[in-house]
Amino acid sequence: MPRTSSSQDRLTDLKEFGSDPGALQADTYIPKNFSKNGPLVVVLHGSTQSAESYDLGSGWSALADECGIALLYPGQRKSNNPISSFNWFSSGDSRRGKGEPLSIRHMIEQVVKDHDIDPTRVFITGMSSGGAMTSVMLATYPEVFAGGAIIAGLPYRSADNLMEAVVRMKGYGGPSDSKLDALVRGASTYEGPWPTISVWHGGSDSTVDQANADSIVRQWQQVHNVEGSPTRVEQVDGFPRQVWCNTDGKEVIEEYIIEGMGHGTPIMAGGDEGLGEEDKYMLEVGISSTRHIAHFWALT
Known about the structure:
By secondary structure, this protein is of the alpha/beta class. The chain has one domain: Rossmann fold, CATH 3.40.50.1820. The strands form two sheets. It has a ten-stranded mixed beta sheet, sandwiched between helices. It is globular, with a radius of gyration of 17 Å. The N terminus is likely disordered.
């Protein structure tokens, strides 16, 4: 996808970041008001998208200007995947210490070092294949992230090859709840504290079925020891937000199902609080997932 001048001007190519076994590319955005020990958000685009198009649609760099947040945009190359999808379903790209996850880990290390980022305030989000790769990163490198947000994505290791991935996207099959939990716990030797989890999904998504959102919640409920019904359900911008709190009362999981929305990232472009631009897979529904995710992470 060609770089638009408005977003190309905003993002800077990260040329050096370790051995890059996943053969990815990377862009950064460091706002002028970023101060030492500030936070970093890693943003993963979806299939057929680029770092630039996802930034333009989601409005992350505009929010970064508001709040002083550093951004890292890992990018897929067409030589790795013809539709620029992260290879979340490939065994070589879904394990700690290998492939695309290790490339992203190296990028994070580089940016944290280059810009004096607070290593306890690193977060990750992504949509579609980027959402599924967010699941991979949270499971394989949980010690790196304070929180993650999975938009229109799938649970970690719900598929181990392309054929399985297509079936899981349609909402069929998949690991049992106990297996979902074991997959995260087995992805690293880490024992917690675990990253907080934000899950967003369109209720009318025909590309990645909503059943995957519920599976992601169940995968992390067991890890966080917050099984069962949500602690509370509230209305946010006209949509239900389900929240699970731990025994300390801390919100550790939230889930938004946007009724009537298809496959994509929910945005609200207009108004004082508006961010981003409507585009393919960047869906104007009157709620900014970008702003609410940043609020969940206490970045706003």
